[in-house]
Specification:
2 copies of one chain form a homodimer. Chain A is of the alpha/beta class and 199 residues long. Helices cover 45% and strands 11% of the residues of chain A. Chain A has 2 domains: 49 residues, RecR Domain 1 (Helicase, Ruva Protein, domain 3, Orthogonal Bundle), CATH 1.10.8; 105 residues, Dna Topoisomerase Vi A Subunit, Chain: A, domain 2 (3-Layer(aba) Sandwich), CATH 3.40.1360.10. Chain A has a 4-stranded parallel beta sheet. In chain A, strands 1-2 form a two-stranded antiparallel ribbon. In chain A, helix 1 packs across helix 2. Bound molecules: zinc ion (2 copies). Chains A, B: May play a role in DNA repair. It seems to be involved in an RecBC-independent recombinational process of DNA repair. It may act with RecF and RecO.
Chain lengths: 199, 199
């Protein structure tokens, strides 16, 4: 004996969510059936809408349902000569939350990874090339992740900038503010030492 | 700046899932958008179907999309004089997986909990009363959870059985097979001692 066919289908469908195994999917399915059918119906309809309507911003490649995202549709932001390159829409949100950066973005939606067959065109570097060529950018701030792939991607884009004689910079890596030294990994600490400044 | 309205809606909708907070919901939303739009569309349609069509088995109260669940629709099972009472559909599955029990079920979909306002009618005990009255049951096996509420619920149903002169039994509590004694909680160990048998 197993659950009814439709319940089994529901549990299987929930398992496409990252981090959700059979046990969690069962728990979710019964929770929705017992306590929140309206919420589940709303989730069903929002999921459908989102998958049908969310595409990439034509200019910066982040996810949005319009041709241009909020930032790319803002003339103030678009008149900036600074372009910040990040790997994901979540990174845009993280940078925005600092309230420090008022320029434009370009969202790679990933990073170069030859081993996975992800080359320059897969992360929109042809589109970025056109933006650099179009002029109006004085500096590209490379805010890719502090990983091997992120660093390699930043390096590749820095070379592209050189061709267009546009300055490229990389955000500083170091000890997080408020972090305790003893819990920082060695690699970060190495970066923190080599990036030290006279005070 | 925040995510686009539709992305925000998607993240909020995913947060109705048990154990899913803002960060997980974001991760899920972007995972689906980037890597599995077809899976998400399938989840959307299954969710809708399930919420619209899954109801309670008319006889045992478990969740199913038909009038009767697989077990209640099976004449062999329904001719049994044993009725096992459990709290949830997942418990039916657990008992079925032992392949030991071949009788009927009654699924409370909860337990008595006066503090939460959950009384006998809320867990279908009026329906259970009718089943006991209808005859054909010689023993009710109380397999509610080994919790205070599960035990109280079992006790309540045992009293109902007494009225109909039907034998009521409670599944044994004790040390799980393969469990190591040192990791068993004291309450379980107490049950294991008081339930000891001569070998
Ligand atoms: Zn944009
Ligand atoms: Zn049934």
């Amino acid at each position: 004996m197993q659950f009814s066919p439709l319940i089994k289908e529901l549990i299987d469908a929930l398992k496409i969510l990252p981090g959700v195994g059979t046990k969690s999917a069962q728990r979710m399915a019964f929770h929705l059936l017992e306590r929140n059918r309206n919420g589940a119906l709303r989730l069903s309809s929002v999921l459908h809408n989102a998958m049908e309507h969310i595409k990439h911003c034509e200019q910066c490649r982040t996810f949005c349902e319009n041709a241009l995202c909020e930032i790319c549709a803002n003339p103030k932001r678009q008149s900036s000569e600074l372009l910040c390159v990040v790997e994901s829409p979540q990174d845009v949100l993280a940078v925005e939350q600092t309230l420090e950066f008022k320029g434009r973005y370009f969202v790679l939606m990933g990073h170069l990874s030859p081993i996975d067959g992800i080359g320059p065109a897969d992360i929109g570097l042809d589109q970025l090339e056109q933006i650099l060529q179009a002029g109006g950018i004085s500096e590209v701030i490379l805010a890719t992740n502090p990983t091997v792939e992120g660093a390699a991607t930043a390096h590749y884009i820095a070379q592209m900038c050189k061709v267009h004689t546009i300055q490229a910079s990389r955000i500083a890596h170091g000890v997080p503010v408020g972090g305790e030294l003893e819990f920082i990994d060695g690699n970060t600490l190495t970066h923190a030492f080599s990036g030290r400044r006279v005070i």
